[in-house]
Amino acid sequence: MSTPVLDPPVPAAAPTASGSPRSWLPILWTLPPVLVVLGVAGYPILRVLTESTRTPAGRGTEVWTSVLGSESFRDALWRTVSIAVCATAGCLVLGTFLAIVLAFVPFPGAGLVGRLIDTILTLPSFLITLAFTFLYGTAGAVNALLAELTGATQPVVDFLTTPLGVILAEITYFTPFVVRPVLAAFAQLPREQLDVAASLGASPWRVLRQVVLPEAWPALAAGGSLVLLLTLNEFGIVLFTGAKGVITLPALIYTRGIVTFDLPGAAVLASVQVLLSLSLYLTYRLVFARFTARPKGD
């Protein structure tokens, strides 16, 4: 009589993730920060959008049509973008130069200069504007010195209340936001790589162009994007320069909301400002992710 063959025991099916109470823990941990973000950022944006549709007759898009079709809005939008782009370009050029000097050109006091750059990051933007006023204002130190030297009765230097003055003040204040990430990128560059390039006969300019800068472009992209986003929303420098003819979107929002108390019009401008900032951020994220994506074979 043959012994019956028994099938091996079948292991009990593991409980599905959907039926396990642990699967809800990540969601529960995520809910508090999501609610905080919605309360801090989402609710004010919703209120602004709601205010922008308020009309004397109720709700509608008349305020949007009126504000977006006005010449003051188009001028402010163009001036905001042009100042932000010019200031960002200046910050990239000056910041890259300062980072190269601090990283590869040793000189006495380099550490002190680096700490001064860090100090600027902690200062409010209007202090830079006040410093510019004391230096280049109509009654500033530079005009007083030039008046002593040339005998001029009128201010020789008078650019502070022009778009150029706003751009120069923003470059002075926001350049450290480029210097710091570029210095961090240079610190990751192996010194042996530079020595090998120099030993093969490459000139310093060629080493800088083909070895150093390609390693620093992600830091330049990050710093430049941050500066562009900050300059688009900068208000303190424009206000404290006293540039009455330089009306940017933040300044126009202030004028509509505080001076003339046109809250629906200010809400429309604020919505455009938020949309502009979010579009810039999403564009940066998409472009940066596309150029830093590794090939599948790596």
Question: Could you characterize what this model shows?
Answer:
The model has no long low-confidence stretch (mean pLDDT 80). The chain contains 13 helices and two strands. The chain is 71% helix and 1% strand. With 298 residues, the protein is mainly alpha-helical. It has helices spanning 25-52, 62-68, 71-104, 110-121, 125-136, 141-150, 163-174, 176-187, 191-199, 204-232, 236-240, 249-259, 263-292; strands at 54-55, 58-59. The protein has a two-stranded antiparallel ribbon. Helix 3 (71-104) runs parallel beside helix 7 (163-174) and helix 4 (110-121) crosses helix 8. Strand 1 and strand 2 (58-59) form a beta hairpin.
- Kindly state the number of beta strands: 2
Radius of gyration: 28 Å
Q: Estimate the global geometry from the Cα principal axes.
A: flat
Q: State the end-to-end CA separation.
A: 62 Å
What's the helical proportion of residues? over 70%
Say what oligomer this is.
Answer: single chain
Low-pLDDT sequence parts: none
Mean pLDDT: 80
Order of helices and strands: HEEHHHHHHHHHHHH
Q: DSSP helix count?
A: 13
Sketch the major β-sheet: 2 strands, antiparallel
Task: Assess the beta-strand content as a share of residues.
Answer: under 5%
